[in-house]
Amino acid sequence: ANTLYDVTEKGLNRMTFDLTNDRRDRLEGVLADIAEGRMFVLLTERFDESLLLLRRRFGWDLRAMLYIRQKATCSPTRKYPKLCTRTLDPDTERKIAELHEPDQRPY
């Protein structure tokens, strides 16, 4: 099939689906556009860094970059480094890695 996903599959990160309109033949072109700077992908897990790259690229004033963090998942702190950490069994980790393979390629 020419599609990247079985759209009925649960647990998928849809970033690559959105970038390619779910067409496997578009993935390499999208990756090349990202690598050559013709396309920018803002990564939610690296949101602050992504905004700073946009700021540098477009010459935005720092005040234009201010935002209020909302609906964020918990993250570890220096005081509590194991906050919100979970371990998965190897089979679950393998399945997640398999499902997210197309989404890992832009990284």
Give the number of DSSP strands. Answer: 0
Order of SSEs, N→C? Answer: HHHHH
Main beta-sheet annotation: none
Strand content: under 5%
Output mean pLDDT: 76
- Fraction of residues in H or I helices: 25-40%
Per the principal axes of the C-alpha atoms, what is the gross shape? flat
* Count, helices: 5
Structural class: mainly alpha
Unreliable runs: none
The N- to C-terminal Cα distance equals 24 Å
Q: Rg, please?
A: 17 Å
List the helices and strands and how they pair.
Blueprint: H1 15-20, H2 27-35, H3 47-58, H4 90-99, H5 101-104
List keywords for this structure.
107 residues, 0% strand
Structural summary, described in words:
- With 107 residues, the chain is mainly alpha-helical.
- It is 38% helix and 0% strand.
- The protein contains 5 helices and no strands.
- It is flat.
Quick overview of this protein structure:
This protein is mainly α and 107 residues long. The protein is 38% helix and 0% strand.
